[in-house]
TrEMBL record:
InterPro entries in alphabetical order: CFA/CMAS, CMAS, SAM-dependent_MTases_sf
Family in the record: Belongs to the CFA/CMAS family.
Keyword Methyltransferase annotated: yes
Organism: Achromobacter arsenitoxydans SY8
Protein name, per record: Cyclopropane-fatty-acyl-phospholipid synthase
Any GO BP: methylation
Keywords attached to this entry: Lipid metabolism, Methyltransferase, S-adenosyl-L-methionine, Transferase
Amino acid sequence: MLSVVERKLQALPVPVQLVLPDGAVLGAPDPRVRFVTHDKTALAHLAEGAVGVLGQDYVEGRIDIEGSMRDVMKAAAALLPGSPMDAARGGWLTELVRKVMSVWRHSVERDARQIEFHYDLSDDFYALWLDPRRVYSCAYYREPGMKLAQAQEAKLDHICRKLRLQTGERFLDVGAGWGGLLLWAAENYGVDATGITLSRNQHAHVTGLIQEKGLGGRVRMELLDYRKLDDSQPYDKIASVGMFEHVGRAQLESYFAKLRRLLKPGGLIMNHGITAAGVYNAELGNGMGEFIEKYIFPGGELTHVSVVMQALANGGLEDLDVENLRPHYARTLWAWSDGLEARLPDAARILGGDQGERSLRAYRLYLAGCAMAFEHGWIALHQILAQQPATGRADELDQPADLSYPWRRDYMYGEPRDALLASPDGRQS
Protein backbone atom coordinates (compact mmCIF):
# COMPACT_ATOMS: atom_id res chain seq x y z
CA MET A 1 0.00 0.00 0.00
CA LEU A 2 2.81 2.40 0.84
CA SER A 3 4.41 1.85 -2.57
CA VAL A 4 1.07 2.71 -4.22
CA VAL A 5 0.79 5.86 -2.11
CA GLU A 6 4.36 6.87 -2.89
CA ARG A 7 3.77 6.53 -6.65
CA LYS A 8 0.63 8.62 -6.34
CA LEU A 9 2.51 11.34 -4.46
CA GLN A 10 5.21 11.50 -7.14
CA ALA A 11 2.60 11.96 -9.88
CA LEU A 12 0.75 14.86 -8.22
CA PRO A 13 0.86 18.33 -9.85
CA VAL A 14 1.92 19.99 -6.58
CA PRO A 15 4.66 18.78 -4.20
CA VAL A 16 3.01 16.80 -1.40
CA GLN A 17 4.53 15.26 1.69
CA LEU A 18 2.97 12.45 3.71
CA VAL A 19 3.75 11.86 7.41
CA LEU A 20 2.90 8.32 8.50
CA PRO A 21 1.46 7.43 11.93
CA ASP A 22 4.89 6.24 13.08
CA GLY A 23 6.52 9.55 12.07
CA ALA A 24 8.13 8.30 8.84
CA VAL A 25 7.97 10.73 5.91
CA LEU A 26 7.20 10.09 2.23
CA GLY A 27 7.04 12.45 -0.71
CA ALA A 28 8.42 15.88 -1.44
CA PRO A 29 11.12 17.32 0.88
CA ASP A 30 9.83 20.86 0.28
CA PRO A 31 6.04 20.40 0.08
CA ARG A 32 3.24 22.85 -0.63
CA VAL A 33 0.72 20.37 0.83
CA ARG A 34 1.33 18.12 3.83
CA PHE A 35 -0.79 15.16 4.94
CA VAL A 36 -0.18 14.06 8.54
CA THR A 37 -1.88 10.70 9.14
CA HIS A 38 -2.86 9.44 12.58
CA ASP A 39 -4.66 6.31 11.46
CA LYS A 40 -3.77 3.63 8.90
CA THR A 41 -7.27 3.69 7.42
CA ALA A 42 -6.52 7.16 6.04
CA LEU A 43 -3.58 5.64 4.14
CA ALA A 44 -5.91 3.12 2.53
CA HIS A 45 -8.29 5.88 1.45
CA LEU A 46 -5.34 7.83 0.03
CA ALA A 47 -4.22 4.80 -1.95
CA GLU A 48 -7.77 4.28 -3.30
CA GLY A 49 -8.15 7.92 -4.31
CA ALA A 50 -11.37 8.07 -2.27
CA VAL A 51 -11.01 11.80 -1.67
CA GLY A 52 -14.46 12.20 -0.11
CA VAL A 53 -13.71 9.51 2.46
CA LEU A 54 -10.32 11.13 3.02
CA GLY A 55 -12.24 14.33 3.71
CA GLN A 56 -14.20 12.52 6.40
CA ASP A 57 -10.87 11.36 7.86
CA TYR A 58 -9.82 15.02 8.04
CA VAL A 59 -13.03 16.14 9.74
CA GLU A 60 -12.78 13.33 12.29
CA GLY A 61 -9.08 14.00 13.03
CA ARG A 62 -7.64 10.84 11.49
CA ILE A 63 -5.53 13.02 9.21
CA ASP A 64 -4.39 16.65 9.27
CA ILE A 65 -3.98 18.66 6.08
CA GLU A 66 -1.58 21.59 5.81
CA GLY A 67 -1.32 23.97 2.87
CA SER A 68 -3.54 26.31 0.88
CA MET A 69 -6.94 24.96 -0.09
CA ARG A 70 -6.20 25.71 -3.75
CA ASP A 71 -3.11 23.47 -3.66
CA VAL A 72 -4.97 20.83 -1.66
CA MET A 73 -7.68 20.66 -4.32
CA LYS A 74 -5.15 20.38 -7.14
CA ALA A 75 -3.76 17.36 -5.34
CA ALA A 76 -7.22 15.95 -4.61
CA ALA A 77 -8.31 16.15 -8.26
CA ALA A 78 -5.17 14.28 -9.32
CA LEU A 79 -5.68 11.58 -6.66
CA LEU A 80 -9.06 10.55 -8.10
CA PRO A 81 -8.97 7.23 -9.99
CA GLY A 82 -11.42 8.56 -12.58
CA SER A 83 -14.46 10.77 -13.05
CA PRO A 84 -16.55 11.06 -9.86
CA MET A 85 -19.60 11.27 -12.13
CA ASP A 86 -18.93 7.81 -13.53
CA ALA A 87 -18.14 6.46 -10.07
CA ALA A 88 -21.60 7.49 -8.83
CA ARG A 89 -23.54 5.97 -11.72
CA GLY A 90 -25.63 2.95 -10.77
CA GLY A 91 -28.00 0.52 -12.46
CA TRP A 92 -31.77 0.26 -12.36
CA LEU A 93 -31.79 -1.08 -8.80
CA THR A 94 -29.71 1.87 -7.59
CA GLU A 95 -32.13 4.26 -9.27
CA LEU A 96 -35.10 2.54 -7.66
CA VAL A 97 -33.51 2.75 -4.22
CA ARG A 98 -32.67 6.42 -4.79
CA LYS A 99 -36.27 7.19 -5.74
CA VAL A 100 -37.65 5.46 -2.65
CA MET A 101 -35.11 7.24 -0.45
CA SER A 102 -35.91 10.59 -2.09
CA VAL A 103 -39.58 10.22 -1.19
CA TRP A 104 -38.76 9.17 2.39
CA ARG A 105 -36.19 11.89 3.02
CA HIS A 106 -38.31 14.88 2.04
CA SER A 107 -41.30 15.15 4.32
CA VAL A 108 -42.14 18.63 5.61
CA GLU A 109 -40.69 17.78 9.02
CA ARG A 110 -37.45 16.21 7.71
CA ASP A 111 -36.82 19.08 5.32
CA ALA A 112 -37.16 21.57 8.18
CA ARG A 113 -34.60 19.65 10.28
CA GLN A 114 -32.21 19.35 7.34
CA ILE A 115 -32.37 23.07 6.56
CA GLU A 116 -31.80 23.96 10.20
CA PHE A 117 -28.75 21.64 10.30
CA HIS A 118 -27.01 23.71 7.63
CA TYR A 119 -28.35 27.26 7.67
CA ASP A 120 -28.73 27.67 11.43
CA LEU A 121 -25.11 26.71 12.15
CA SER A 122 -24.18 30.32 13.02
CA ASP A 123 -25.09 33.62 11.37
CA ASP A 124 -21.81 35.13 12.57
CA PHE A 125 -19.87 32.28 10.94
CA TYR A 126 -21.53 32.81 7.55
CA ALA A 127 -21.00 36.56 7.83
CA LEU A 128 -17.21 35.98 7.93
CA TRP A 129 -17.00 34.80 4.33
CA LEU A 130 -20.20 35.81 2.55
CA ASP A 131 -20.69 39.29 1.05
CA PRO A 132 -22.33 42.00 3.20
CA ARG A 133 -25.79 41.02 1.88
CA ARG A 134 -25.10 37.37 2.79
CA VAL A 135 -26.11 36.11 -0.62
CA TYR A 136 -25.46 32.38 -0.33
CA SER A 137 -25.76 31.33 -3.98
CA CYS A 138 -23.85 31.63 -7.25
CA ALA A 139 -22.70 35.18 -8.06
CA TYR A 140 -22.71 36.61 -11.58
CA TYR A 141 -19.34 37.98 -12.67
CA ARG A 142 -20.70 40.27 -15.34
CA GLU A 143 -17.20 41.79 -15.61
CA PRO A 144 -14.08 39.65 -14.99
CA GLY A 145 -12.58 41.98 -12.39
CA MET A 146 -15.61 42.15 -10.12
CA LYS A 147 -15.23 41.57 -6.40
CA LEU A 148 -17.61 39.13 -4.70
CA ALA A 149 -19.99 41.78 -3.38
CA GLN A 150 -20.25 43.40 -6.82
CA ALA A 151 -20.84 40.06 -8.51
CA GLN A 152 -23.57 39.17 -6.04
CA GLU A 153 -25.37 42.44 -6.70
CA ALA A 154 -24.99 41.77 -10.44
CA LYS A 155 -26.59 38.34 -9.89
CA LEU A 156 -29.51 39.83 -7.98
CA ASP A 157 -30.09 42.30 -10.78
CA HIS A 158 -29.61 39.61 -13.42
CA ILE A 159 -32.52 37.69 -11.91
CA CYS A 160 -34.71 40.78 -11.55
CA ARG A 161 -34.10 41.72 -15.18
CA LYS A 162 -34.87 38.22 -16.42
CA LEU A 163 -38.10 38.31 -14.43
CA ARG A 164 -38.84 41.82 -15.78
CA LEU A 165 -39.96 42.97 -12.35
CA GLN A 166 -42.29 45.96 -12.39
CA THR A 167 -43.34 48.40 -9.68
CA GLY A 168 -46.32 47.13 -7.73
CA GLU A 169 -46.07 43.51 -8.81
CA ARG A 170 -46.45 40.73 -6.24
CA PHE A 171 -43.12 38.88 -6.05
CA LEU A 172 -42.43 35.59 -4.26
CA ASP A 173 -38.92 34.45 -3.26
CA VAL A 174 -38.97 30.73 -2.42
CA GLY A 175 -36.06 29.93 -0.12
CA ALA A 176 -35.16 33.58 0.46
CA GLY A 177 -32.03 32.98 2.57
CA TRP A 178 -30.77 36.09 4.31
CA GLY A 179 -33.00 38.27 2.16
CA GLY A 180 -30.58 39.52 -0.51
CA LEU A 181 -32.87 39.07 -3.51
CA LEU A 182 -36.05 39.84 -1.57
CA LEU A 183 -34.76 43.23 -0.43
CA TRP A 184 -32.98 44.05 -3.71
CA ALA A 185 -36.20 43.49 -5.65
CA ALA A 186 -38.23 45.58 -3.21
CA GLU A 187 -35.78 48.47 -2.98
CA ASN A 188 -34.75 48.66 -6.64
CA TYR A 189 -37.86 47.48 -8.49
CA GLY A 190 -40.68 48.55 -6.19
CA VAL A 191 -42.37 45.16 -5.89
CA ASP A 192 -44.55 43.87 -3.08
CA ALA A 193 -42.31 41.02 -1.92
CA THR A 194 -42.87 37.85 0.09
CA GLY A 195 -40.05 35.51 1.08
CA ILE A 196 -40.17 32.11 2.73
CA THR A 197 -37.53 30.05 4.55
CA LEU A 198 -37.29 27.05 6.87
CA SER A 199 -34.34 28.56 8.76
CA ARG A 200 -35.26 30.28 12.01
CA ASN A 201 -32.01 32.25 12.00
CA GLN A 202 -32.61 33.57 8.50
CA HIS A 203 -36.23 34.39 9.30
CA ALA A 204 -35.23 36.46 12.32
CA HIS A 205 -32.41 38.19 10.44
CA VAL A 206 -34.53 39.22 7.44
CA THR A 207 -37.49 40.28 9.59
CA GLY A 208 -35.14 42.63 11.43
CA LEU A 209 -33.79 44.06 8.16
CA ILE A 210 -37.30 44.68 6.86
CA GLN A 211 -38.12 46.73 9.94
CA GLU A 212 -34.80 48.61 9.85
CA LYS A 213 -35.37 49.60 6.23
CA GLY A 214 -38.98 50.64 6.82
CA LEU A 215 -40.31 48.12 4.31
CA GLY A 216 -42.86 46.48 6.59
CA GLY A 217 -45.77 47.65 4.45
CA ARG A 218 -44.78 45.72 1.33
CA VAL A 219 -42.10 43.18 2.29
CA ARG A 220 -42.54 40.15 4.54
CA MET A 221 -40.56 37.03 5.49
CA GLU A 222 -42.41 33.89 6.53
CA LEU A 223 -41.16 30.74 8.26
CA LEU A 224 -42.94 28.35 5.93
CA ASP A 225 -42.51 25.27 3.74
CA TYR A 226 -43.21 25.92 0.05
CA ARG A 227 -45.81 23.13 0.08
CA LYS A 228 -47.90 25.11 2.56
CA LEU A 229 -48.04 28.33 0.54
CA ASP A 230 -51.56 29.56 -0.21
CA ASP A 231 -52.04 29.42 -4.00
CA SER A 232 -55.48 31.05 -4.01
CA GLN A 233 -53.81 34.45 -4.53
CA PRO A 234 -51.11 33.82 -7.16
CA TYR A 235 -48.05 36.01 -7.72
CA ASP A 236 -46.92 38.01 -10.74
CA LYS A 237 -43.32 36.77 -10.53
CA ILE A 238 -41.57 33.99 -8.60
CA ALA A 239 -37.90 33.25 -7.93
CA SER A 240 -36.49 30.11 -6.36
CA VAL A 241 -32.73 30.45 -5.80
CA GLY A 242 -30.60 27.65 -4.38
CA MET A 243 -33.69 25.89 -3.07
CA PHE A 244 -34.72 23.08 -5.38
CA GLU A 245 -31.58 21.06 -4.56
CA HIS A 246 -33.30 20.39 -1.22
CA VAL A 247 -36.61 19.33 -2.79
CA GLY A 248 -35.54 15.82 -3.83
CA ARG A 249 -35.64 14.28 -7.30
CA ALA A 250 -38.84 12.36 -6.58
CA GLN A 251 -40.64 15.60 -5.64
CA LEU A 252 -39.50 17.82 -8.52
CA GLU A 253 -42.64 17.39 -10.60
CA SER A 254 -44.94 18.27 -7.70
CA TYR A 255 -42.61 21.14 -6.77
CA PHE A 256 -42.92 22.72 -10.23
CA ALA A 257 -46.66 22.04 -10.24
CA LYS A 258 -46.93 23.95 -6.96
CA LEU A 259 -44.97 26.90 -8.41
CA ARG A 260 -47.28 26.87 -11.44
CA ARG A 261 -50.33 27.14 -9.19
CA LEU A 262 -48.67 30.04 -7.37
CA LEU A 263 -48.12 31.96 -10.63
CA LYS A 264 -50.59 34.26 -12.37
CA PRO A 265 -51.22 33.66 -16.08
CA GLY A 266 -48.64 35.65 -18.05
CA GLY A 267 -46.20 35.71 -15.12
CA LEU A 268 -42.66 34.34 -14.93
CA ILE A 269 -40.76 31.88 -12.73
CA MET A 270 -36.98 31.84 -12.31
CA ASN A 271 -35.51 28.59 -10.93
CA HIS A 272 -31.81 28.92 -10.06
CA GLY A 273 -30.05 25.86 -8.70
CA ILE A 274 -27.17 23.39 -8.75
CA THR A 275 -27.52 20.57 -11.25
CA ALA A 276 -25.66 17.32 -11.81
CA ALA A 277 -23.33 17.13 -14.81
CA GLY A 278 -23.98 13.40 -15.14
CA VAL A 279 -27.41 12.34 -16.31
CA TYR A 280 -27.62 9.32 -14.02
CA ASN A 281 -25.99 10.38 -10.77
CA ALA A 282 -27.69 12.20 -7.89
CA GLU A 283 -24.33 12.87 -6.21
CA LEU A 284 -20.60 12.59 -6.91
CA GLY A 285 -18.72 9.34 -6.34
CA ASN A 286 -15.43 8.51 -4.59
CA GLY A 287 -17.02 9.40 -1.26
CA MET A 288 -17.66 13.03 -2.24
CA GLY A 289 -21.44 12.76 -2.16
CA GLU A 290 -21.40 10.98 1.18
CA PHE A 291 -19.21 13.75 2.61
CA ILE A 292 -21.71 16.46 1.59
CA GLU A 293 -24.64 14.38 2.87
CA LYS A 294 -23.03 13.75 6.26
CA TYR A 295 -21.47 17.11 7.07
CA ILE A 296 -23.03 19.82 4.91
CA PHE A 297 -26.39 19.24 3.18
CA PRO A 298 -28.27 16.23 4.56
CA GLY A 299 -31.05 15.37 2.13
CA GLY A 300 -29.55 17.33 -0.77
CA GLU A 301 -29.93 15.73 -4.22
CA LEU A 302 -28.53 16.74 -7.60
CA THR A 303 -30.43 16.35 -10.86
CA HIS A 304 -29.23 16.73 -14.43
CA VAL A 305 -30.79 19.71 -16.21
CA SER A 306 -32.46 17.39 -18.74
CA VAL A 307 -34.31 15.66 -15.90
CA VAL A 308 -35.17 19.04 -14.39
CA MET A 309 -36.65 20.16 -17.70
CA GLN A 310 -38.74 17.01 -17.90
CA ALA A 311 -40.06 17.55 -14.36
CA LEU A 312 -40.75 21.21 -15.17
CA ALA A 313 -42.78 20.25 -18.25
CA ASN A 314 -44.66 17.52 -16.37
CA GLY A 315 -45.40 20.10 -13.69
CA GLY A 316 -47.23 22.20 -16.27
CA LEU A 317 -44.65 24.86 -17.11
CA GLU A 318 -43.06 25.98 -20.38
CA ASP A 319 -39.32 26.71 -20.42
CA LEU A 320 -38.34 30.05 -21.93
CA ASP A 321 -34.64 30.57 -21.23
CA VAL A 322 -31.91 28.30 -19.84
CA GLU A 323 -28.47 29.61 -18.79
CA ASN A 324 -25.55 27.63 -17.38
CA LEU A 325 -23.51 29.63 -14.84
CA ARG A 326 -21.06 26.85 -13.92
CA PRO A 327 -17.78 28.89 -14.04
CA HIS A 328 -19.48 31.72 -12.18
CA TYR A 329 -20.12 29.37 -9.27
CA ALA A 330 -16.53 28.10 -9.32
CA ARG A 331 -15.29 31.67 -8.89
CA THR A 332 -17.94 32.39 -6.24
CA LEU A 333 -16.90 29.36 -4.20
CA TRP A 334 -13.22 30.25 -4.40
CA ALA A 335 -14.11 33.74 -3.13
CA TRP A 336 -15.97 32.16 -0.21
CA SER A 337 -13.13 29.70 0.43
CA ASP A 338 -10.49 32.44 0.37
CA GLY A 339 -12.65 34.54 2.68
CA LEU A 340 -12.97 31.74 5.19
CA GLU A 341 -9.27 30.84 5.01
CA ALA A 342 -8.41 34.45 5.81
CA ARG A 343 -10.58 34.34 8.97
CA LEU A 344 -9.87 30.88 10.38
CA PRO A 345 -9.07 32.06 13.96
CA ASP A 346 -12.33 34.06 14.02
CA ALA A 347 -14.27 31.09 12.64
CA ALA A 348 -12.81 28.77 15.29
CA ARG A 349 -13.75 31.24 18.03
CA ILE A 350 -17.32 31.63 16.74
CA LEU A 351 -18.01 27.92 16.30
CA GLY A 352 -16.10 26.84 19.42
CA GLY A 353 -15.53 23.40 20.97
CA ASP A 354 -14.84 20.02 19.40
CA GLN A 355 -18.01 20.04 17.30
CA GLY A 356 -17.20 23.54 16.10
CA GLU A 357 -13.74 22.38 15.02
CA ARG A 358 -15.27 19.51 13.07
CA SER A 359 -17.72 21.88 11.38
CA LEU A 360 -14.92 24.27 10.44
CA ARG A 361 -12.85 21.46 8.93
CA ALA A 362 -15.89 20.27 6.99
CA TYR A 363 -16.64 23.73 5.60
CA ARG A 364 -13.04 24.29 4.53
CA LEU A 365 -13.18 21.17 2.39
CA TYR A 366 -16.77 21.77 1.25
CA LEU A 367 -16.16 25.26 -0.15
CA ALA A 368 -12.86 24.46 -1.86
CA GLY A 369 -14.03 21.02 -2.98
CA CYS A 370 -17.17 22.41 -4.60
CA ALA A 371 -15.09 25.09 -6.36
CA MET A 372 -12.94 22.29 -7.78
CA ALA A 373 -16.04 20.31 -8.82
CA PHE A 374 -17.49 23.25 -10.73
CA GLU A 375 -14.15 23.93 -12.42
CA HIS A 376 -13.95 20.32 -13.60
CA GLY A 377 -17.56 20.29 -14.80
CA TRP A 378 -18.66 17.57 -12.37
CA ILE A 379 -21.58 19.78 -11.29
CA ALA A 380 -23.23 22.82 -12.85
CA LEU A 381 -25.61 25.70 -12.06
CA HIS A 382 -28.61 26.47 -14.25
CA GLN A 383 -31.05 29.35 -14.29
CA ILE A 384 -34.33 28.32 -15.92
CA LEU A 385 -36.96 30.91 -16.80
CA ALA A 386 -40.45 29.48 -17.26
CA GLN A 387 -44.10 30.41 -17.57
CA GLN A 388 -47.46 28.69 -17.70
CA PRO A 389 -48.17 26.82 -20.97
CA ALA A 390 -49.09 28.65 -24.16
CA THR A 391 -52.80 29.20 -24.82
CA GLY A 392 -52.86 29.48 -28.62
CA ARG A 393 -52.86 33.26 -28.86
CA ALA A 394 -51.26 34.90 -31.90
CA ASP A 395 -50.06 38.17 -30.31
CA GLU A 396 -47.20 36.89 -28.13
CA LEU A 397 -44.51 38.65 -30.18
CA ASP A 398 -46.37 41.97 -29.91
CA GLN A 399 -45.64 42.24 -26.17
CA PRO A 400 -49.24 42.53 -24.93
CA ALA A 401 -49.61 44.06 -21.48
CA ASP A 402 -50.78 40.82 -19.84
CA LEU A 403 -47.71 38.82 -20.90
CA SER A 404 -44.26 39.33 -19.35
CA TYR A 405 -41.88 37.47 -21.63
CA PRO A 406 -40.85 39.42 -24.79
CA TRP A 407 -39.50 36.41 -26.78
CA ARG A 408 -36.39 38.51 -27.54
CA ARG A 409 -33.18 38.60 -25.48
CA ASP A 410 -32.32 42.25 -25.99
CA TYR A 411 -34.12 43.14 -22.75
CA MET A 412 -31.27 41.46 -20.83
CA TYR A 413 -28.49 43.39 -22.54
CA GLY A 414 -29.91 46.88 -22.98
CA GLU A 415 -29.60 49.83 -20.66
CA PRO A 416 -28.27 49.29 -17.13
CA ARG A 417 -30.77 49.23 -14.28
CA ASP A 418 -29.97 52.79 -13.13
CA ALA A 419 -30.91 54.17 -16.53
CA LEU A 420 -34.16 52.21 -16.47
CA LEU A 421 -35.01 53.51 -13.02
CA ALA A 422 -34.36 57.05 -14.23
CA SER A 423 -36.86 56.67 -17.10
CA PRO A 424 -39.99 58.88 -16.93
CA ASP A 425 -42.29 56.16 -15.64
CA GLY A 426 -39.65 54.33 -13.59
CA ARG A 427 -40.46 51.06 -15.30
CA GLN A 428 -38.42 48.65 -17.39
CA SER A 429 -39.02 48.62 -21.10
